[in-house]
Amino acid sequence: MLLDDRIKLRIFGSSHSEEIGVVVEGVGFGETIDLDKLQAFVDRRKSKFGFTTPRKESDKIIIESGIENGITTGGEIVAKVLNENFRRADYDKFKVTPRPSHADYAAITKYGKGHDLSGGGRFSGRITVPLCIAGGIALQLLEQKGIKIGAYIQRIGSVEGKSYRFTLPCEDEVMSAGKKDFPVLDDGYVLPMMREIEGAKKTGDSVGGVVECVVFGLPVGTGGELTSSLESAISKNIFSIPAVKGVEFGTGFLLSSMRASAANDEFIYDETGKVVTTTNNNGGINGGICNGMPVTFRVAFKPAPSISIEQRTVDLEAKTNTTVTIKGNHDCCFVPRAVPAVEAMTAIAILNLL
């Protein structure tokens, strides 16, 4: 995978290869990177609850080049982690009977039966490890510029948590959410969300959800018109995260049902003489350019497609209809683990625009 612009990422490895990592180009010379902080950020995506995959990986970051003694050298940053817990043979049968809503059939058709689908291959949530390594670096560089990015769980299945979709976000509350094992704004929603996940797990099913993200401190004028828009840059990167199916900015699709008199964000001078808006329905973006307000958006994640309920599929060799049952334990909700990935890919998009 190659994301163009000034900061280029090249992902290597796959879910069940011996290692998985990232090559980052364009960071430059002399930037300070706190490697302990970077490791702590990547560790946020690990399994912490019984509803997530039993696969255990240390995910210890190995810096092969590009950072020495915490300072970037100006060359490519090459970083990786070792895959320590994988079994390729468990997935061979899915080359013949593709799993519903997985990339199996599309990938086999495009790349051939020799394509590595073990554990989801390069379509797996495991790919978020190198994304978080690269994004963790970007987050540190942005923080040095006074820009902070925070994400949190807003919805699990039918359970809605606290949201800043309709009100101006509080920076301290948003940034504190990411420090929690279950990153929500209001801890009162943790138990209902957990019950929603457990209910799906008991029936062999899975559940999706929504992650909200806020960018604080982004300078007025960041972004551009048409294909250079701030929304385009963020959305492009967010859709590189497996299982993302939707992105909306500010009040999002609800704007389509509002009149402009309600939807427009009116400008005023605040007590410090700064131009601000009284509302943030447009998510801090006008015409594809940041207007100085916090940039807010929501990311929809589909339910994890690996479930133990019998499902219909096809036998590609016999050319007949058949069924498939996916055995073993899988994430029945990977939304909590996706929160740092949303922050990571947003950071890379913002760093490119700056």
Describe the structure.
It is globular and about 70 Å long. It starts with a strand and ends with a helix. It has helices at residues 35-43, 104-111, 128-143, 171-177, 190-202, 230-238, 260-263, 335-353, and strands at 2-3, 8-13, 19-25, 29-32, 62-65, 67-68, 71-73, 77-82, 148-156, 159-160, 209-216, 244-249, 267-269, 275-277, 285-286, 289-290, 295-301, 311-315, 320-324. Helix 1 crosses helix 3, helix 3 packs across helix 8 (335-353) and helix 6 (230-238) runs antiparallel to helix 8 (335-353). The chain is built from eight helices and 19 strands. The mean pLDDT is 92. The strands form six sheets. A five-stranded antiparallel β-sheet has the order 1-2-3-8-5, covered by helices on one side. The protein has a five-stranded antiparallel β-sheet with strand order 10-9-11-17-12. With 354 residues, the chain is of the alpha+beta class.
